[in-house]
From TrEMBL:
Residues in VOC domain copies: 7-131, 152-269
Xref: Pfam families: Glyoxalase
Any one GO MF annotation of this record: dioxygenase activity
Phylogenetic lineage: Bacteria, Bacillati, Bacillota, Bacilli, Bacillales
SUPFAM superfamilies: Glyoxalase/Bleomycin resistance protein/Dihydroxybiphenyl dioxygenase
Name of the protein in its database record: Ring-cleaving dioxygenase
Amino acid sequence: MKKHTTGIHHITAIVGHPQENIDFYAGVLGLRLVKQTVNFDDPGTYHLYFGEENGKPGTIITFFPWPNAYQGRIGDGQVGVTTYVVPVGAMDFWKERLTKFNISYSETVRFGETFLQFDDPHGLHLELVERVNGEDNGWTFGGVTKEVAIKGFGGAILYSCRPEETAETLVELMGLEVVGQEGDYKRFRATADIGNIIDLKMTTGVRGRIGVGTVHHIAWRANDNQDHIEWQQYAMDLGQHVTEVKDRNYFNSIYFRESGEILFEIATDSPGFAHDETPETMGSELKLPAQYEHLRERLRESLIPIEVRHLD
């Protein structure tokens, strides 16, 4: 039986100073810091999660902040652009807001939609698009109200080393549907109402180099643990070299690098971000998995102090 993912679960990127990261994604974009924890594979590094008020799959962007690390290069084998969706009629607000914070932007049209494109402080390529689909985000912060707030992901632009093979993976393995082709881009759609549109660049360019300002991986949704195990076997049956299941506390994960060299993760929707703190307090303090709890005091001393703050 063929499987299909409903869409993007999260996107994870590498950035620089963690306070700069928080100031931009919370202070400028108005997203909620839904979890502050550590990289489970490198506990001396933060792992910060931003999304809508409840941290729903399809809204979460996560970061490994590496202060003073080398700059990466966006290119083939990576997510090239992360797309956010905002309510219809919100674009003028976002143009004014980006201008207020001296963030340069440009506009482009793709598949009949207008995108507002800009970079974060560490070089990640982002864009905003208006769409009807998706629930409004009830989180309000720093002058960003629910009428204009980012709902979650619109999707992403993928840069592949082998675009035709990546296209095949998106359809035959992940179960997305081809819905159009325009210029250099082929568009794919999943079934969720957000995080569901993938534009794949069908021409190649410079090869990406991992580092600050680049996306580390894109994660796709699995319903639950049983569905996740089925995905693991399904991907292996289709020739992917899939990792063992990794417990990430807020979801379980498997990973494989598809033929275009983009790192794919499949992550469970459950248990979510509120199981170790309440929905009201999510993101307010450092949360550690059990295996690192004994390091709490040492980590408090070594990790850079951070805070979510209103920006003028």
